[in-house]
Design a protein that fits this description.
2-enoyl-CoA Hydratase, Chain A, domain 1; single chain; about 15% strand
Length: about 270
């Protein structure tokens, strides 16, 4: 076991954490002895962390990951009559569905670092990210049909829009486990990596995204998600495109192209 894996295995604060280093933010699930299952009290914490990422103007990319041997076992159902996945809010506490919607709407591009298996609701949490890089020995499992749980609307729409109807039906209606190679084939994973190379692959993608023009990248991210949902807001689309067209970043990008050098974008 590598030193970083040892640190991950020993982390058991239970509370999701946020670390910001330069242009990159990392949100980590910290309940490894329970396979990073997400409990009701974690949802408001994760919502606040996402708000903090959006408020940090210097952040250009976010990585979501877990500690230990699994990315996440999903939402902790507990008593199914009280803690069913999805639905609205109970007692003012946001639902798991609301968390996935909030993650998808994150201002900056998001990468899910799948350090281990991904199960149940956390399969949708990962899908709400823009990219998913996983170890080549992981698996995924959507057990809703086996548990008798009817999944929530936003998650099913996300499965269909991102994976296609056939893959969504296979995963929801058969409760089949699939391995990393199949996850890559159906488009669930952006790429796979041996365990020893996972961090390097995530770091490389995060660095590449962070090096690009943030106004353009963030505007296109939002537009692509809206198009996928069939909800493109043209007035907002045109406003974002106009802001990018009038930006100092566009001028810098064109100068750098002419001068055959790497651009340095300021996000304005």
């Amino acid at each position: 076991m590598s030193a970083s894996a040892t640190v991950e295995a020993e982390t058991e604060t239970g509370v999701p954490s946020l670390a910001v280093e330069g242009a990159r933010a990392t949100v980590r699930l910290n309940r490894p002895r329970h396979m990073n299952r997400i409990q009701p009290e974690d949802i408001p914490v994760l919502m606040r962390l996402l708000d903090a990422v959006d408020a940090a103007s210097g952040v250009r990319v976010m990585v979501l990951t877990g500690s230990g041997r699994a990315f996440s076992a999903g939402y902790h159902l507990g008593d199914l009559s009280e803690q069913a996945e999805g639905g609205g809010s109970e007692g003012g506490v946001p639902s798991f569905e609301a968390l996935t919607v909030r993650l998808e709407a994150c201002r900056v591009p998001t990468i899910c670092r799948l350090n281990g298996g991904v199960y149940g609701g956390s399969t949708d949490l990962a899908l709400a990210c823009d990219f998913r890089i996983g170890r080549d020995d992981i698996e995924m499992f959507m057990p809703a049909g086996r548990l008798g749980v009817h999944y929530y609307e936003a998650g099913m729409r996300r499965y269909v829009s991102r994976l296609g109807l056939n893959a969504a039906k296979r995963l929801f209606l058969t409760a089949e486990r699939i391995d990393a190679a199949e996850m890559l084939r159906i488009g669930y994973l952006t790429e796979t990596a041996p365990a020893a190379e996972l961090d390097a692959r995530v770091d490389a993608l995060a660095a590449r995204i962070a090096s690009l023009a943030p106004l353009a990248v963030q505007g296109m991210k939002r537009a692509l998600d809206e198009i996928a949902r069939g909800e493109l807001h043209m007035a907002m689309f045109e406003a974002r495109a106009a802001a990018a067209k009038d930006s100092e970043d566009l001028k810098e990008g064109l100068r750098a192209f002419r001068e055959k050098r790497e651009p340095v974008f300021r996000g304005r």
